[in-house]
What does this fold into?
Amino acid sequence: MSTPLQRRRLLLAGAAGLAGCASAPPAGDGWHDMPLPGKTRSRYRSVRKDGRDAIEATAHDAASLWRRRVRVPAAELGTVSFSWWVGALLPRASVADIDHEDAVARVIFGFDGDHGRLSARTRAQYELATLLTGEAPPFATLMYVWDGMAPTGSVITNPRSERIRKLVVDSGPEQLGRWRDHRRDLRADYQLAFGEAPGDLISVALMTDSDNTDGQARTWYGPLRF
It folds into this structure.
């Protein structure tokens, strides 16, 4: 059985694998494309960006995730570091608007929990999602996002699901065209967003999407580090 330190190192090694290949992202480290029903897929590939290893995400009227399953016990959750480089925002996009819910940059964390606590409406949504995708959604999902409109620090509940909360860590065009490095306390941010302690972390993902605004987005992501 692996120790907590070994598990963290394994997770870090997998995250560093984001930049482990010269063209397409590596297939053997657990990262994989996760399509969304009825959506054109965003494209993810390994590149160099301004001297850094990165994943380039391109979305042309598209939406999908670049995801890795993990298992980090809630008691071991701590800080997470991530970075992204965005050149332009999507006009009209807003993570608070159900009709224009796109984001040039998202880093997404999925958490386990007691599904018996979900509302009847959410359980029905999860059952439908399971039928469409072949897997149940996480009990709760926390997204760090770059939004063009909402102020930094805003916590936004997904218009379609109360179990998805978004925390705006970059806002507007002022920081475009350069690497933005973020270090966050994952446990504290989950508590802020959901008003309760998190369960085990079960997935991490990147997502650049433009399907709701019929736009084009291009973003670079650095490795995740715990």
User: Anything to note?
Assistant: The helical segments are 4-16, 120-133, 186-194. The chain has a mean pLDDT of 89. The chain has three helices and twelve strands.
